[in-house]
Amino acid sequence: MSRFPILDICARLDGHAHQQKLLIEYCRNFTEWHALLSKAETEGMAPLLRKHLREADAPYPVGVQRSLNVLYEHHKYKAQIRLALLQEVIKIFRRSGLRPILIKGAALCYTLYHDPALRPMRDIDLLFDKSEVDQAQALLREFGFSQSALPIPKDHHHLPSLHKIIDGVEICIELHRGLYPNCQPYYPKVDFDNLYSTGITISMGSAEATTFNLEETIHYIYQHGLRAPLTYEPYKLINVADIISFIEKYGRELNWEEIEMNYPILCKAIPLLHYVSPWNPDRLPERIEVPKSRIHLEPKAYRGWPNKRLKEFKDEKRNMLYMLRVTFMPSKWWLGVYYGANTFIGGIWCMLSKHSFHVLWWAKLYYSLSKMRES
Question: Which domain does 364 fall in, by range?
Answer without folding.
Answer: 300-375
